[in-house]
Amino acid sequence: MGTINQRPFSVIGWQAALALATSVVLLPVFGLVAAYSAFTGGMISVIANAFFALRLFSNKGSWQVDHLAAVTYRGVIGKLFLTIALFLLVVVLVKPLNAAALFAVYLWIQVSPALIAGVLNKT
Fold first, then answer.
1. Residue 94 falls within a domain, yes or no?
2. What are the pLDDT digits (tens) for 52-105?
3. Does the N-terminal peptide bond of residue 8 adopt cis geometry, omega within 30 degrees of 0?
4. 2, 90, 99, 107: which has the highest count of C-beta atoms within 10 A?
5. Is position 13 within any domain?
6. Contact of 19 with 43, CB cutoff 8 Å
7. From the CB of residue 75, how many other CB atoms can be counted at a distance below 10 Å?
């Protein structure tokens, strides 16, 4: 009844690993600032996606369409505000910061679930 679907959380684990791997690849090419900026951007995406997955997939209520839609809307709005707050914190607190690496890896991790799902479907 109250079980949580584990598949979304395995995708989030893969996203975290991909953020780390991308940062490691960027380190020798672009330097330390780009690497930790990239990792930070990736983790903003991972944290926001984990929040949304927890909101959506730990649904203990009914699976009626209106209830599910309300849970989804609350999750999306929460994810949006959390993402904005995390970006603001990073921009204010992390100095020096490579903004291009931050946003590029954030976007890379945002689109990665489609790639990760393809890999998980083959296993």
1. yes
2. 988 888 766 667 777 788 888 999 999 999 999 999 999 999 999 999 999 999
3. no
4. 90
5. no
6. yes
7. 18
CA–CA separation, 51 and 12 (whole Å): 10
Residue 42 belongs to a domain: yes
How many separate domains does the chain show? 1
Could you write out the DSSP letters of every residue in 5-66?
A: PSHHHHHHHHHHHHHHHHHHHHHHHH-HHHHHHHHHHHHHHHHHHHHHHHHHHT--S---HH
Question: Does residue 106 contact residue 44 with C-beta atoms inside 8 Å?
Answer: yes
Domain of 64, in residue numbers: 28-114
| Separation CA 22–CA 108 (nearest Å) | 9
Q: pTM of the full predicted structure?
A: 0.86
Cβ burial of 101 (10 Å; 0-12, 13-18, 19+) is buried
Instruction: Give the Cα separation of 28 and 5 in Å (integer).
Output: 38
Q: What percentage of the chain has pLDDT greater than the value 70?
A: 86
